[in-house]
Amino acid sequence: MLTDDERVRKACEITRELKIPDEKTLPVLKKLLQENGENWNLIKLDNYTALIDAIYSLDEEEEEEDKKKKKKQTETSSNGSSRGKSHVINVFDSPHSAALKKQSQGSSNRGKSVDSPATLKRKYETRSAKSGSSSEEGVQKQSQTSDGVRKKRYKAIIRDITKGSESVEISLVDEVGSEQVPKFTYIPHNIVYQNAYLHVSLARISDDDCCASCNGDCLSADFPCACARETSGEYAYTKEGLVREEFLDTCIKMKKAPDTFSKFYCQVCPLERDNGKCEGHLIRKFIKECWRKCGCDMMCGNRVVQRGIRCQLQVYFTQEGKGWGIRTLQDLPKGTFVFEYIGEILTNTELYERNIRSTSERHTYPVTLDADWGSEKDLKDEEALCLDATICGNVARFVNHRCEDANLIDIPVQIETPDRHYYHIAFFTIRDVKAMDELTWDYLIDFHDESHPVKAFKCCCGSELCRDKMPKGKTEFSWLIMHYGGDICQQDLEASREKEERLFLLKNKQVPKRWQ
Ligand SMILES: C[S@@+](CC[C@H](N)C(=O)[O-])C[C@H]1O[C@@H](n2cnc3c(N)ncnc32)[C@H](O)[C@@H]1O
């Protein structure tokens, strides 16, 4: 662990490499630290991008001031003799004058006070999350006027895409430097678009569905409260705020080997508009958090998702052709809650109509809320719900797909209503994740499904088990075996229940000896 002095020294070493003197670095650094609640992680981010940007912004302003001064001098002298005018230009253009100018800038810096945090923030925040054309010009102009060094450095485009609506700031950076900033409105909570009907009311929460007599932290009580009943009498979370391993592993297994779990089949499926033939909806495991009628407090260990994002995250432009993605800026242990998928709550009909109207959107952002359709009678199109983060959403709208070995899983979470027609989609880490790793989710796309009305994107996930790279006609199972080797006989393949079990093991690289 470095001391503050060592951190400052390190920051100066970096800026000195860019020929920035310490007397310029230090006051800016001080202001940035004040502004960010002494958060060194943000300062160090992407090799001190925020710091370097703030220093350059200061330079830009000074250059601007210099230009104005020069202009004024020129104007004044043009009112006098023309010799005076050329003299001013010559002095500023000679090598000697450049050195003089540098010196005078240095001294003016020492005398000059650094911008207030608010101004620095404004400079650094070159655009708001909802971009307009003028801010886009700003980004382009920046790259045109940059010198060689500046072109290479990372450009932080948005300091906080959440616009202060989350308890952590989430920056957006573009290391490639050529991408348009995404256009969407950041919302930290789901919101009904128009027709969706959410059965949320206090009257629906019966005594059995809450823990009115609890106090403080339910996880510290001697016995699990009513809210743990949903998860077999044990809370889904540990005291450290992570999803319990056993619960998490069952959820993972459910995703990877769905055919070994119960499914609900609609008679006429709202998702299969054309032929209506239902492919089955998994009856998922839910987490149930304490809520309004419960007696515990907000810091109760059984309230994790509802407290919102706590991890340090960043949106960045991926190099592999996936567009924008999300990475973690800190190590995350297995079972950490990362974010919820937030968007507009639409009925299936509304989504369908929206999709018909939409012009060629490169990326898509809807997720169906079908984790417990089995608990209701057949749902109609105008009842079935989904979340669409295309226009309004949170950071989760940037989560990219990865085949088979993604590091996040979505788990349905019941919070304000026992009725699972509406619920929250929360993302947790499946394994330990290292700082700067991209956070990914397996969208479970079948890349070879030609009957699907929406053509899947060309997958660039980079996974060894990429299903898009799987040769056409190969079953997923044989593709995995091809990858890991093994002499599985046809009978093995046919033993379908076990097959799913084996698929799960193969995907987790736990291939039993006899199969290798
Ligand atoms: C929910 S968005 C994810 C954020 C998106 N990358 C962006 O720039 O806004 C889903 C879209 O991202 C792109 N995408 C996600 N994962 C991908 C992958 N593995 N390969 C290629 N494109 C991917 C696809 O265009 C997809 O429709």
TrEMBL record:
MF terms in GO: histone methyltransferase activity; zinc ion binding
Composition-biased stretches (Polar residues): 102-111, 129-147
Top-rank taxon, per record: Eukaryota
Record localization: Chromosome; Nucleus
Keyword Transferase (UniProt): yes
InterPro entries: Pre-SET_dom, SET_dom, SET_dom_sf, SUVR4/1/2, WIYLD_dom_sf, WIYLD_domain
Domain SET: 311-444
Boundaries of every Pre-SET domain copy: 214-308
Main location: nucleus
Keyword Transmembrane helix attributed: no
Keyword entries, A-Z: Chromatin regulator, Chromosome, Metal-binding, Nucleus, Transferase, Zinc
Pfam families cross-referenced by the UniProt entry: SET, WIYLD
GO cellular component annotations of the record: chromosome; nucleus
Region (Disordered): 59-149
Protein name: Histone-lysine N-methyltransferase SUVR4 isoform X1
Gene symbol of the encoding locus: LOC108856777
